[in-house]
Amino acid sequence: MRLVIEKTLDREIVHCASGRALVTSRHARVSVEGEAGAYRVEVPCPAWDRALGALRLARRALRLDKCNVVQVGGDLVVVRRGEVFHRAREGGALVRTLRLANCRSVLHQAIAVVDDQELYLGEYGANPSRAEVPVYRSRDRGRSWERAFAFPAGTARHVHGCHWDPVERRIWVFTGDFAGECHVLSADQDFRQVEWLGDGQQAFRACGAFFEADAVHWIMDSQLEACFQVRLDRRTRRIEKRAAFPGPVWYTKRLSDGVYLAATAQEVGPGVRDRFAHLLASRDLERWEDVHRFEHDGLPRRIFKDGVVAFADGAQTSAGFYLFFEAIRGLDGKAALCRLEP
User: Fold this and answer.
1) ω into 115 cis (within 30 of 0)
2) If residue 22 lies in a helix (H) or strand (E), which one and from where to where?
3) How far apart are CA 225 and CA 204, in angstroms?
4) Confidence check: pLDDT of 91 > 90
5) Sign of the C-alpha dihedral, residues 213, 215, 216, 221?
6) Model confidence over 109-139: pLDDT tens digits?
7) I want to staple 122 with a disulfide (CB 3.0 to 4.6 A). Which of 30, 97, 135, 160 is the partner?
8) Distances (CA, A) of 106 to 64, 66, 117, 309, 340
9) What are phi and psi for residue 140, nearest 5 degrees?
10) What values do phi and psi take at 162, rounded to 5?
11) Which helix (H) or strand (E) holds 292?
12) Is pLDDT of 36 > 80?
């Protein structure tokens, strides 16, 4: 298979794409397109943010491009600069419903949505003091929030993602980053029955998962050691390492026509084999093809980020799916409609 880029969009993030629905953002402006029409929402921000946000390099350096948007039951939930907002499907302004304790935004695809009603998100921040890390739940499409769970101080740096497992009907939570901090939790929706999986080591450091009938698969996102696909048997709860990957995988996507996608980040460390961010594809979670390689754009990483390729939520197929990019040569701050060819 090979990647074909059909067209590029002047949008920094494609949050969701499914059918005619398309949710994107650029700086603090969210654009929503759908069968009922199109509208834009301005996320509240101070004047200095608005001024500096006019420049892409400033947005990169200050992380002003970071934003999460989820559509749930027609409502809109937005996370930006440590605040969570809600907009009702009937329209109106964004209303702030939660202030995060130690986090500005979360990773893409990191907010679990259950039955088009409940949402779960965990804080993703630097957390230098290793304070407790909360997981929040909304039962009403983001209108209000409560703490569902908290990782005790010292057990995790941050949450990489909350994900809904439709097979066991449980929430899976992935954490990182260093020794003793990498865990996988499987919990009921009230977090009354919490199963801790793993020993805190890098094999359990991941951002997302593929939930299959007999197993849960994740791909390590560690730049500290070689990365592998990990298979967890649902019955025995034992893991085994499978395919090796050329770098840490931040984002994955299961397409509606049975193709699995994974994108490696272009970071620095023993777990990074070359200078590319790779897009890989599989039809069976056994054999992976390297379908495209992207180069980092060469700007200083500490200020202007590692190279990242990410996916949009929503039902898409190999004939049409969206990617968006950070610090990738020729594509930084852009999104693209793509397809796979044999």
Assistant:
1) no
2) strand 21-26
3) 12
4) no
5) negative
6) 999 999 999 999 999 999 999 999 999 999 9
7) 135
8) 13, 9, 20, 16, 28
9) -130, 45
10) -110, 130
11) strand 289-295
12) no
Residue 332 structure tokens: 């930084």
Distance CA 73, CA 96 (A): 18
Handedness of CA 79, 80, 82, 87 (dihedral sign): negative
Nearest CA among 45, 78, 77 for reference residue 62: 45
pTM (whole model) above 0.85: yes
- Give the pairing type, strands 158-165 and 75-80: unpaired
Kindly state the percentage of the chain with pLDDT values over 90. Answer: 96
Provide the token pair at 49.
């943010």
Answer yes or no: are the C-beta atoms of 119 and 106 closer than 8 Å.
no
Two structure tokens written together for 51: 């001024």
Query: pLDDT digits over 163-192, tens only?
Result: 999 999 999 999 999 999 999 999 999 999
- CA 43 – CA 93 distance, rounded (Å): 9
Domains detected in the chain: 2-341 (2.130.10.10)
Nearest CA-CA partner of 158 in 207, 192, 112: 207
